[in-house]
Write a structure and sequence with these properties.
With 351 residues, the chain is an alpha+beta fold. The chain folds into two domains: 204 residues, no CATH class; 133 residues, no CATH class. The chain is built from eleven helices and 14 strands. The strands form three sheets. The chain has an eight-stranded mixed β-sheet, with helices on both faces. Helix 6 crosses helix 9. The longest helix is centred in the C-terminal third of the chain and has 20 residues. Bound molecules: iron/sulfur cluster (2 copies).
C-alpha cells in the first residue's frame, strides 16, 4: 500500500477536476446533521462532521428506479431495458463503515443473478474514504472486525494530518485517481501523525460492543425459537426506518406500473423485512405474523443467514439503525444480550 501526501489545495483541485463528486454536506434542515450529496467544490463538504444520516446505498441502489419499459403491440410485447452503464463519480470522505458495506453487498448482488445496474454504478465509482472521527455510542464497527480506519471498500483512504491528508492508496482505481493530482510522497512525520490518529480513533469505538464471536451465527440458527426474541422485540413497531438508513439492507420489491393498457414500466423500490406487508401473500396468509418474527428475521439474516452463505456479517456497525429508531431499539445492546445468552448456553453445556 503506497502512502502519499495531499495538501488541501491538491484535494480541492481533485474535486474541481471531476464532474460528479458526492460528499457529506451539512443538512439544510438541521446543521448538526449531514447527508451524502453532490458537491461543486471541496469547501461544500462537511469534513469531520456527524456520520451522514443515510448511507451511500442510494448511489448504487436508488430508493426507486425503472428497470425496463414495455409496450404491447400487435406483434407482441416490446421491452426496452434501461442502460446499465453509469456516469463516473467520486465519493469523497466516505465513512469506512459505508465503504465496507458496498463490498459486503456486492456478494448478494452477484449471487445467482448479477445485478448489472448495481455493478455498473460500482465500476463507475471511485471511493475516497476518510478516517472516521465522528463516532458516538451507537457505533460498533470494531465488534464486526472493521474499524474507523478500515480501508475495506475504499480505493483511497485519507487521514487528516497537518496541512492536508495522508492518502493510503488501496486499489488501482485509487492509484488512477491520484495519478493526475499533485500528491507527493508522505513524510515520516505525516505517516506518524496518521498512525496516532488511527490508534486514537480505534480506542474511541472499541468498547462500545463486544466482538461478535465466530460461533454466534450457528447459535442464532440453533435458537430460532428462543423465547428472548419475543421480549427483545417489544419496542419495535415495524416502521422499517432501520432498513432504510442501513448501508447493508438491500431488499427491494418489483412492481409493474401501467401508464395505459398498452404500456408501462417495471420498477424496483426499497422494501424492508420489518414491515408487516413484506411477507404478506396474495391469499392473505403471512408467514411472519408478529413483529418479533420480523425482528428475528433481521437479526438472523444479518448475523447468521448471510454469514453462512457469503462468509460476511451483513452489518458494518455504523449505528444508524439505533439513531433512527423511534422505539429505542439498540443493536449493540441487543447483540450483547444475545451473545450473553449464547455464552451462558456454552457454559452450561461445558464447552
Ligand atoms: S427496530 Fe426501530 S426503526 Fe427498525 S422497524 Fe423496529 S421500530 Fe422501526
Ligand atoms: S444493521 Fe444497523 S449498525 Fe448494522 S449496518 Fe445496518 S444500520 Fe448500521
Amino acid at each position: 500500500m503506497t502512502q502519499r501526501f495531499l495538501s488541501h489545495a491538491d484535494l480541492a483541485a481533485l474535486v474541481a477536476a471531476h464532474k460528479r463528486v458526492i460528499a457529506p454536506v451539512r443538512a439544510k434542515d438541521d446543521a448538526r446533521q449531514t447527508d451524502y450529496l453532490p458537491i461543486q467544490a471541496l469547501a461544500d463538504a462537511a469534513l469531520g462532521a456527524a456520520l451522514p444520516r443515510r448511507s451511500l446505498k442510494e448511489y448504487f441502489l436508488p430508493p426507486t428506479e425503472v428497470l425496463l419499459s414495455y409496450r404491447q403491440t400487435k406483434e407482441g410485447v416490446e421491452i426496452k431495458e434501461v442502460p446499465t452503464q453509469a456516469q463516473p463519480q467520486v465519493i469523497l470522505f466516505a465513512s469506512p463503515c459505508d465503504a465496507a458495506a458496498l463490498e459486503v453487498v456486492d456478494k448478494v448482488m452477484d449471487w445467482q443473478y448479477r445485478d448489472e445496474l448495481w455493478f455498473g454504478r460500482r465500476e463507475a465509482t471511485t471511493i475516497v474514504g476518510l478516517l472516521c472521527s465522528s463516532m458516538d455510542s451507537s457505533c460498533f464497527c470494531s465488534a464486526i472486525g472493521l474499524g474507523p480506519d478500515s480501508p475495506r471498500g475504499s480505493d483511497v483512504l485519507l487521514t487528516q494530518v497537518e496541512g492536508g491528508y495522508l492518502a493510503q492508496v488501496i486499489t488501482p482505481k485509487g492509484e488512477a485517481l491520484l495519478a493526475h493530482c499533485a500528491a507527493t510522497e508522505a513524510s515520516a512525520a505525516a505517516v506518524a501523525q496518521a498512525e496516532t490518529a488511527r490508534k486514537q480513533a480505534r480506542e474511541k469505538v472499541e468498547n462500545n460492543a463486544p466482538a461478535i464471536p465466530n460461533e454466534f451465527g450457528a447459535w442464532l440458527e440453533e435458537n430460532f425459537d428462543h423465547p428472548a426474541w419475543k421480549t427483545m422485540a417489544l419496542r419495535c413497531h415495524g416502521c422499517g426506518a432501520c432498513a432504510s438508513v442501513c448501508p447493508t439492507c438491500h431488499c427491494f420489491d418489483i412492481v409493474d406500473e401501467h401508464d395505459s393498457s398498452e404500456e408501462g414500466v417495471r420498477r424496483r423500490n426499497w422494501d424492508s423485512c420489518q414491515t408487516a406487508k413484506f411477507t404478506l401473500q396474495a391469499s392473505g396468509y403471512n408467514p411472519r405474523q408478529s413483529q418479533s418474527e420480523r425482528f428475528r428475521q433481521r437479526i438472523q439474516h444479518k448475523f447468521s443467514i448471510y454469514p453462512k452463505r457469503f462468509g460476511e456479517i451483513l452489518c458494518t456497525g455504523c449505528g444508524r439503525c439505533c439513531r433512527v429508531c423511534a422505539g429505542g431499539m439498540n443493536l449493540p445492546e441487543i447483540l450483547g444480550g444475545l451473545i450473553a445468552l449464547a455464552k451462558k448456553d456454552q457454559g452450561e453445556s461445558g464447552q
